[in-house]
Design a protein that fits this description.
Elements lengths: L3 E6 L3 H10 L5 E7 L3 H11 L3 E3 L2 H4 L7 E4 L6 H10 L4 E4 L6 H14 L3 E4 L6 H11 L6 E9 L19 H17 L4 E8 L5 E9 L5 E7 L8 E5 L2 E6 L7 E5 L6 E4 L8 H12 L10 H18 L7
Helix pairs in contact: 4-5, 5-9, 7-9
Length: about 325
């Protein structure tokens, strides 16, 4: 079994989780890390036993034998850092949201396709065993035809105007940080909506604190989605079908199982594997794609990501949120 050499570009909190998750894959190795702070890179490398640590993102391109780069920088940096790696011929797994807007996403996609290099959004939710199982049950008609999907994601974030979550210069707000999860899960199960309506409340910096979205689909289904930085929500997703309900158990974006509620039956709990944080599932999928010579994921193609970015743009237009770099 071939071992794949990973690099991480950007060493914030999520990079630590990815590094820990990568250690769960027997055929993956963290080969290089890059930060704008050389000391931070060296400390990260020492903690995880990484042979190469560099103090600039450009320098990462000089490290030999990199098979894939995981980009873990803030939202506003994804576009530039993805292009940096793609132009150097390096396959990329880019953290979500994929970009600030659909225009950036389109350019990232065009470069990857023109150069024939693998690119995928790091939407880890898609690769959890519970999600695979839920899609299988829905496809089998277990809950009948989906009529409505409800999903929420919220936590209490201290109001720090210059911080990542509330700073418009860093593409802050609940929508791009966590509202993207309910949008993603609705798209995964219901496809492209015919209509999107959204309302939001703002922080003092102008970004959204609460964002509520209502979606309607051609087949007659609807979705109600919510994200907030002001309250702890249940972080749940429920699919209401014509013959029953399907609940993703645990936090839906990192689900640990499924609960089926069918008429005249006791609820049926189906546990699903969830090891550690769960980032290894997406990393494993990237490795499988690379082994097959693929330049896109069949489970999370760039068209899906592009359409999701268009949905985010549509919501922001409705709530009147435009970032200064746009």
């Amino acid at each position: 079994m071939r071992t794949y050499n990973w690099a991480i570009l950007g060493l914030g909190n999520i990079a630590h989780k990815f590094a820990e998750s990568l250690a769960l894959l027997p055929n993956a190795r963290l080969h290089a890390v890059a930060s704008r702070d050389a000391v931070k890179a060296q400390e990260f490398a020492a903690r995880f036993g990484v042979p190469h640590a560099v103090g600039s993102y450009d320098e990462l391109l000089t490290v030999p034998d990199i098979d894939a780069v995981y980009i873990a920088t803030p939202h506003t940096e994804h576009y530039a850092h993805t292009l940096l790696c793609l132009r150097a011929g390096l396959p990329v797994l880019c953290e979500k949201p994929f970009a600030v807007n659909a225009q950036q996403a389109q350019q990232m996609r065009q470069i990857a396709e023109a150069k024939g290099i693998f690119l995928m959004e790091a939407f880890w939710t898609r690769f959890f065993p519970a999600i695979h199982k839920a899609l299988e049950l829905v496809a089998a008609g277990t809950i009948g035809e989906i009529k409505h999907l409800a999903a929420d994601f919220g936590f209490v974030a201290p109001y720090v105007p210059e911080g990542r979550l509330f700073n418009p210069a860093l593409a802050g707000g609940s929508l791009l940080d966590i509202g993207v999860y309910p949008l993603f899960i609705s798209k995964l199960f219901l496809g492209e909506p015919q209509e999107i309506r959204a309302i939001a409340t703002r922080a003092g910096t102008g970004v959204d604190v609460n964002c509520t979205m209502a979606l309607a689909y051609e087949g007659g289904a609807t979705a109600s989605l919510f994200s907030t930085l002001a309250a702890q929500t249940d972080n749940q997703c429920i699919l209401y079908g014509s013959h029953g309900q399907l609940h993703l158990t645990g936090r839906f974006h990192a689900a640990s199982g499924i609960t089926l509620k069918l008429p005249n039956q006791e609820p049926q709990h189906i546990p699903c594997e969830k090891q550690g944080y769960g980032y290894q599932y997406e990393a494993e999928h990237v490795q499988q794609c690379l082994a097959q010579g693929l330049t896109q994921s069949p489970l999370l193609p760039l068209q899906f990501t592009q359409e999701l970015m268009h949905q985010l743009d549509a919501v922001r237009k409705q709530i009147g949120l435009r970032y200064p770099m746009e």
